[in-house]
Write a structure and sequence with these properties.
The protein has 206 residues and is α+β, with helices and mostly antiparallel strands. Helix content is 29%, strand content 16%. The chain has 6 helices and 8 strands. The strands form 2 sheets. Strands 3, 4, 5, 6, 7 and 8 form a 6-stranded antiparallel β-sheet that branches. It starts with 8 loop residues before the first strand and ends with a helix.
């Protein structure tokens, strides 16, 4: 049976425009500003045009691809150190590609591929792959490679496996935008029109 995971976004504060009770807060998907998906073509040219592949990263992705079919945008991004380095993180998150997929602990026909984790493992992000379905990004407070039903009951696992984004590129874009905004509103970094428009969504609600 296909599981309908809860939807949401584990994010940080955006200054006074959006508060957070801790390092991370789970924000409802419907509360997030809309993003323009028209430029999500798998090249990540909106981030770094013509970003080069990194031979070592590309080898890691190719080795992972021997075990599971990966979406092209995922392979493109995770094969480029330049693209990964272009994503800031105000909480010390690192792109950390798992060497192998693992079965979902609550949906064994699905596979999980870890690709990003908080420095203290407060949140870990996975590519979630179901047979015959579009991959999406799932976030969890646990390393799902090692946690299972013997440690955590099924209902608790499902409730904390959050559908964060419908696609990998969409996730990377919002993660980049939100973290860039955090440094802008909290550290005074330069902002862009896109960042200001995103922030205006929250300021209009204040």
């Amino acid at each position: 049976m296909t599981i309908d995971f809860p939807h949401g976004w584990w994010g940080t504060d955006l200054g006074t425009a959006r508060a957070s009770m801790g390092t991370y807060e789970l924000y409802p998907t419907e509360s997030l500003p809309a993003v323009d998906p028209s430029r999500f073509d798998g090249t990540f040219s909106w981030l770094v045009p013509d970003a080069p592949h990194d031979p070592l990263r590309a080898m890691e992705v190719a080795a992972l691809g021997e075990h599971i079919v990966l979406p092209a945008p995922f392979k493109r991004f995770m094969s480029s150190q330049v693209l990964m380095d272009a994503i800031p993180s105000c909480t010390g998150c690192d792109f950390d590609l798992a060497p192998r997929p693992v079965p979902s602990p609550v949906e064994p026909s699905a596979q999980l591929v870890r690709f990003l984790r908080d420095q203290r493992d407060a949140v870990i992000w996975y590519l979630y792959l179901r047979p015959g379905a579009e991959p999406f990004v799932l976030a969890s407070p646990w390393l799902l490679e090692v946690v299972g039903l013997e440690e955590v009951d099924r209902d608790t696992l499902v409730a904390n496996m959050v559908h964060a984004s419908d696609s990998f590129e969409q996730f990377v874009h919002r993660f980049w935008l939100e973290n860039s905004l955090w440094f802008s509103v909290n550290e005074g970094d330069e902002s862009t029109d896109e960042m200001n428009l995103y922030l205006a969504h929250y300021q209009a609600a204040i």
